[in-house]
Design goal:
CATH superfamily of one domain: NAD(P)-binding Rossmann-like Domain
Strand order of the largest sheet: 3-2-1-4-5-6-11
Structural class: alpha/beta
Number of helices: 13
Oligomer: single chain
CATH class of one domain: Alpha Beta
Number of strands: 13
Helix content: 40-55%
Radius of gyration: 20 Å
Largest sheet: 7 strands, parallel
Shape: globular
CATH topology of one domain: Rossmann fold
CATH architecture of one domain: 3-Layer(aba) Sandwich
């Protein structure tokens, strides 16, 4: 039994009260699902700016009625301190996921990005401090590595931020450090690297690349790649992120708290490779899908050329052990995508 399996057994035996901000979002809904399946009490906060009710509905369908009864939902905005105080009341652990999580969106609208990602983050820190939460875990981002040229990103070496989104996440880490020093609030930052999985939204101009390309291939629509396709990312299946959050919230290893960690799998995949993997995976599920070539456009402003995580620190201090390599996570994601699409088509036909 590894550390994560031991932790889950311990959480069942000594249940605590958890808060997930952004609970109706992609990552937030997976955290919610997992905590409820462990029979834990969860408060969820979301304003549905980027989250969606269908994610909550999906979780409700995957847990028992008794488990769902342990969930309390607050519709509200982290930009309002009063809402944050309400959400943090009687909470042991905060998993702060709420944010405008898009580099491209932040470039034309940096003020909106700052209000959600910086002001909202500060409000949550204040509420966590005032309500004496045991641990404040928050989503940071690999975007803060910016123009760092090193092939593998390590936590101690960041570059200049290339977008307002990246800047907002760097400010989050500075504020978390300040609250740890000034108020002894225990914080842990998790720098996510290109998280993907079921329930990730394929729609909209700023959709993540995996669901967007999968939807385009299935719908026989053109797929566009920004740049030459040799841009690379460390694609991380969402269940690895769930593991990291639970470990970060409960770790008691000396020196593990008030730190930031890379959360990924430690492997690099180019966009060209990813496109072939998605197309091949979908054609395995539906052989009638045609083979189609992608088209290339100019590089996008604010995009980092290469992003690969060194996850050694998370493995050492958090006992993080990513269970899902990119290929396995992609297979599970595409299977969900196809079954979800089929179910949607059937429901439309029944109307």
């Amino acid at each position: 039994m590894n550390q994560y399996e031991k932790l889950q057994a311990q959480l069942r035996e000594t249940p605590k009260r958890w808060l997930i901000t952004g609970a109706a979002g992609f990552i937030g809904s997976h955290l919610l699902e997992h905590l409820l399946l462990l029979d834990l009490h969860v408060v969820g906060l979301d304003n549905f700016a980027t989250g969606n009710q269908r994610n909550l509905d999906a979780v409700q369908g995957l847990v028992s009625a008794g488990q769902w009864a342990r969930f309390e939902f607050i519709e509200g905005d982290i930009r309002e301190l009063k809402v944050c105080q309400q959400a943090c009341a009687r909470v042991d652990y905060v998993l702060h996921q709420a944010a405008l999580g898009s580099v491209p969106l932040s470039i034309p609208d940096p003020i909106r990005c700052h209000e959600s990602n910086v002001t909202g983050f500060l409000n949550m820190l204040v509420a966590g401090r005032d309500n004496q939460v045991a641990r404040f875990v928050y989503a940071s981002s690999c975007a803060i590595y910016g123009n760092n040229p090193d092939p593998a990103k390590i936590e101690t070496k960041i570059g200049r931020p290339l977008s307002p989104y990246a800047a907002s996440k760097e400010i989050n880490e500075v504020y978390a450090t300040a609250f740890a020093e000034a108020y002894k609030l225990e914080t842990v930052g998790l720098r996510y690297f290109n998280v993907f999985g079921p329930r990730q939204d394929p729609d909209g101009p700023y959709a993540a690349v995996i669901p967007k390309w999968a939807a385009s291939i299935v719908n026989r629509e053109p797929v566009e790649i920004y740049g030459d396709g040799e841009t690379s990312r460390d694609f991380c299946y969402v269940q690895n992120v769930v593991q990291a959050n639970l470990l970060a919230a409960t770790v008691n290893t000396t020196g593990a708290v008030n730190q930031v960690y890379n959360i990924a799998v430690g492997n690099r995949t180019t966009l060209n490779q990813l496109y072939r993997m998605i197309q091949d995976g979908l054609r395995d599920l539906d052989p009638e899908l045609p083979i189609q070539e992608c088209t290339h456009r100019e590089f996008r402003a604010g995009d980092v050329r290469h992003s690969l995580a060194d996850v050694g620190k998370a493995k050492r201090l958090l006992r993080y052990a990513p269970k899902y390599p990119t290929s396995r996570g992609l297979k599970l994601t595409l299977a969900w995508f196809m079954s979800s699409k089929l179910g949607s088509e059937r429901s439309l036909c029944a109307k």
